[in-house]
Design brief:
This protein is an all-alpha fold. Helices cover 58% and strands 1% of the residues. The protein has one domain.
């Protein structure tokens, strides 16, 4: 039976029905479909609590070197530096929490989705209000040249370009330029943002930038390095890991509407699955973008035999394949 997205919440980002693209090999009963599309608040609260606990734990180990508690010796750099790395990865992967909330599938309650999504975007330097519209088109036109806005970001075509991309340099330049452009009200060249949503996007980006300015101001006022040590430096260090995760999702996959062939699922360690809110199950997510993160593992059990790009050797295996193709297949 061909599955339709008509069962999804009208608030969730959905993809076109595969019935218009051919026969869908995924066979789900109505009960199974209802199960994978069911939104619940509890799993997201537990995942968010775990992610924030991870940040507090490793963030404290990093900060304990610079700002030890009264009567405590500064923590050794042998502990603080690895903690910084793990803390940075946790900050960067708050993108995944924002992404899930942007789909409005993390929580059953959209007030929670929008509030938590904006906060997670603040931590990861994304704006959830803008990203919801941008990402909606990515799902609607996945890997279709001239339509998928993610394809507007140039992919590396040389080893040097790959290193620059993975470093996060191009991401930082793009994010700073993008936020400032939106804050200035220049949004007309982004067709995926409807006219009636533009004012909201501009307000949201301005509020986000104002929040950063206020935090910087407090750091200066208290003559501390809180902003740099607690956010900027860790995010710079953590961003290359997120670049690897994101670059693996579609690079080298088909440039067409085949939702079993234009997206890659990657097997990885439980910690990455946890911090990425199950997004390594990315082909499953693209087949049913209205399915909450906690349902993707169940979807994978059904979809696995039909996936054209399944990375059994993990993210490093995908990256080795990308490097091998550089100069031959820039896709």
């Amino acid at each position: 039976m061909t599955m339709s997205t008509s069962h999804a919440s009208p608030d969730a980002i959905v993809s076109p029905d595969l019935s218009t693209e051919g026969v869908d090999p995924l066979k789900l009963t109505p009960a199974e479909l209802k199960d994978v599309l069911a939104r619940r608040d509890a799993p997201a609260w537990w995942r968010l609590a775990g992610h924030l606990t991870y940040l507090v734990a490793f963030g404290w180990l990093w900060f304990a070197h610079w700002y030890p508690l009264p009567g405590m010796e500064p923590l050794s750099l042998w502990i603080a530096v690895p903690a910084l790395l793990l803390y940075g990865i946790g900050l960067a992967t708050m993108f995944a929490a924002m992404h899930e909330c942007v789909h409005r599938t993390a929580f059953k309650t959209n007030t929670y989705n929008d509030g938590v999504g904006w906060f997670a975007g603040l931590l990861s330097f994304y704006n959830s209000t803008f990203y919801r519209h941008y990402h909606g088109w990515h799902h609607r036109f996945t890997q279709i040249p001239g339509k998928d806005p993610e394809l507007e970001d140039r992919k590396p075509t040389s080893l040097i370009g790959y290193v620059i991309e993975i470093s996060g340099i191009t991401w930082w330049i793009g994010k700073i330029r993008g936020h400032l452009t939106l804050a200035a009200g220049r949004i007309a060249n982004r067709p995926y943002v409807p006219e009636n949503a533009r004012a909201e996007v501009i307000r949201s980006v301005r509020l986000q930038l104002l929040t950063y300015v206020l935090i910087i101001g407090l750091s200066v006022a208290f003559q501390s390095w809180w902003f740099v040590l607690g956010w900027l430096l860790p995010l710079i260090i953590g961003q290359p890991f997120l670049r690897v995760f994101v670059l693996s999702e579609h690079t080298g996959c088909a440039r067409d509407g085949d939702r079993y062939g234009n997206t890659r699922t990657t097997y990885t360690i439980p910690l990455i699955n946890f911090l990425m809110w199950e997004m390594p199950f990315h082909a499953e997510h693209h087949r049913h973008p209205a399915a909450p993160f906690h349902a993707l593992g169940r979807l994978h059990a059904k979809m696995q035999p039909h996936l054209k790009y399944l990375a059994n050797d993990g993210y490093m295996g995908v990256q080795r394949g990308i490097i091998k193709r550089l100069g031959i297949d820039p896709a």
